[in-house]
Amino acid sequence: MSIMLISTFLVLLVPVCLYLRASCRSKNPAVLPTNWPILHMFPSFMANLHNLYDYFTLVLARSGHNFRAHGPPGTGMRFFITCDPANARHIFTTNHANFPKGTEFADIFEIMGGSLFTIDGEPCRRQRAKAKSMLSSPRIVASMAAYLCGKVENNLLPLFTRMAITGTSFDMQELMSRLMFDLAATPLFSVDPGLLSLDMPPMDAAVALDTVMEVGFFRLMMPASCWKSMRWLNIGPERKLDTARMVLRELVQEMMEKRKITSCRFGHGKEQESVDIISSFLEDPDYANVDLLHAVIISYMLAARDTIATTLTWIFYNLAQNPNIVSIIRNELSPIASRKVAVGVCTPVIFEPDETKSLVYLTATLYETLRLYPPAPVLRKTVAVDDIMPSGHEVHAGDTIFISVHSMGRMEAVWGKDCLDYNPHRWLSDDGNNLRYIPSHKFLAFNSGPRMCLGKDIAIMQMKTVIATTVWNFDVNLVEGQSIQPKPSIILEMENGLIVKLKKREI
């Protein structure tokens, strides 16, 4: 598509989208997208871009969990949108080879090109095997647990204590982002970036990671010819992405230099190797290409920081509104805290990974948050060859499939009449002593099938330690009057953050 045709397309599109967007915000939006002349359903989705995940939920609830959509002629925008668990099982497990991420996805996230995030087939299997070997290493897991406890004790708790004493309101989302940035980078490079500290240094690299996810969302929703032309012209979101790319390259170079200094200072003994994930890539000839190495690092940082920081933010948002759930978590933590006090450990109490591992209700609370607020609310696949879904819908080669994880957690037919309620008890067995088994194709927060999240156990370990330590030592209260809504992004971050105040508990 030429620049002139793109300009004409945008001239036609923008007024329609502005009208629809104003209409949607002034009254209840139409449940099903309007099939406009020429532009077809594209304007309806653009008009709801500010709240697309909830819009998907409305559309899918009304259309029986599945919906077809298409954009203007010549754009190649043919979508099949689903939140049907049977379809999810077919896509992710039964016939997963027919539903790769595809070349368009790799183009959209070119900044991570060649990394596990964008590849399919044999390259994906090889890279997953390498990642699985590293993330299941007892020495690396032990090192990550030690980093976690040290960061909570030496940085997070002092910050929270100061906020509680002074009665200062702060953005919990920003603090969780700083925390997880440090916890992602430290085992990777054996260097602590120090974003979570009392002086709150600039977080340009963390903001750059956010930009990658925001521009990725924009690219997913736009015809490829449009965003590629914007990239060529270096305008709009593409200019922001170009700046973010430079910031992230500088971060990688800076951290690699600091790593060299640390290695020279402490030598190359086994202890050093056990906490330095990047060494495994540097010693592998498959990653000799600098661009590929940078892509792998950025992919790892996004996976290790964004998903966990986002989930922690939504957990504290939900717990602040459910004091009864907080009380149950504290009752579950009480025997552990009592043992710590008995051996002379004063408050604030830090709950270590081994101590929270078997806590059933705390895990149920975490899963309930992930059900309603999955950090990756929509997953994207491409159809390789024509297929028929379990729902009976035909999909054709080249179609794009969106699996709405966010919508699946809010479907009455999947989770019951109380599907919109925040209720951790739904995850418990009848006696409350164990977790119910929920298949991954129904609960897709950690993906499913051959692409199941390799860092699931580490992520749960980190989140449970942060939640337990915070909830035991502090009351978290929401500041009134704030607007809580997701930002347009691949990750379910809050548009305006989460402003809270803390009160230290008298235990």
TrEMBL record:
Gene3D superfamilies (alphabetical): Cytochrome P450
Signal peptide: 1-19
One BP annotation, GO: lipid metabolic process
Residues reported in the UniProt entry to bind heme: C453
Listed cofactors: heme
Keywords from the UniProt entry: Heme, Iron, Metal-binding, Monooxygenase, Oxidoreductase, Signal
Segments traversing the membrane: none
Stretches of the chain forming a coiled coil according to its record: none
Cross-referenced PROSITE patterns: CYTOCHROME_P450
SUPFAM superfamilies, sorted: Cytochrome P450
Record bears the keyword Transport: no
GO molecular function, one term: oxidoreductase activity, acting on paired donors, with incorporation or reduction of molecular oxygen
InterPro entries reported for this sequence: Cyt_P450, Cyt_P450_CS, Cyt_P450_E_grp-IV, Cyt_P450_sf
Similarity remark: Belongs to the cytochrome P450 family.
Protein name (database record): Cytochrome P450
Lineage of origin: Eukaryota, Viridiplantae, Streptophyta, Embryophyta, Tracheophyta
